[in-house]
């Protein structure tokens, strides 16, 4: 049974059609790698999944719940969009950490803000905050940064900042964790530490959607691969099908050029 189901997604900006007829599915615990040339629509697709952009049409469902239905003309309210975003955690390529907060505070902040909306927050504030911090410390340990809790972003390397961003996304316990080219802003020597964390999440059967330009990593870590070209799904299948035996000539050209 599909955990994430996307059907006929379409998105345009003015007269520019960016996504057309995007359809794919993902089972719980699987990882999907999205690959393709710059400008092929990969990041726009990810932004639509996270409701940072609202699609023009199509449907998005997670665990049987329809989050977006293009046949329903009623616009989503800000509160509805915010609730839908909680289903997905997004790790940006540029980290987007708050510079005025420590690494630990960056991980706990969103959870603390959400907790304030609970009716029992004032009564149980200390216990709730303690539980949030305990979870954050565990996540920081999971990404190998238990010794950097009180460091500020400017005191961390790019790879360390990205690992804090991963812990922050995990703290909200999303159904699906999304990555937008998580190593593109890193020096080559720092890329490996971030990829190791993502690989460990895949081993733990975290459901993930990963936009990446790391072809070997995509082949190793993903259960499915989606190759995009000019805003469409040019090819979709297993890593073995896409990388070892691509059906489409456009896929072959892309992979040959990339490896070459």
Element-by-element helix/strand order: EEEHEEHEHHHEHEHEEHH
Low-confidence stretches: none
The number of helical runs is 9
N- to C-terminal separation?
38 Å
Question: Into which percentage range does the β-strand content fall?
Answer: 25-35%
Key features of this structure:
six-stranded mixed beta sheet, 9 helices, globular, alpha/beta, single chain, four-stranded antiparallel beta sheet, 260 residues
Concise structural overview:
With 260 residues, this protein is α/β, with parallel strands linked by helices. It has 9 helices and 10 strands.
Written account of the structure:
This protein is of the alpha/beta class. 39% of the residues lie in helices and 25% in strands. It is built from 9 helices and 10 strands. The protein has helices spanning 42-49, 78-85, 103-115, 125-142, 158-171, 188-203, 215-221, 239-244, 249-259; strands at 2-13, 16-27, 31-36, 57-62, 65-69, 88-91, 176-180, 208-211, 224-229, 232-237. Strands 6-7-8-3-9-10 form a 6-stranded mixed beta sheet, sandwiched between helices. Strand 9 and strand 10 form a beta hairpin. Helix 4 (125-142) packs across helix 5 and helix 5 (158-171) runs parallel beside helix 6. The N and C termini lie far apart (38 Å).
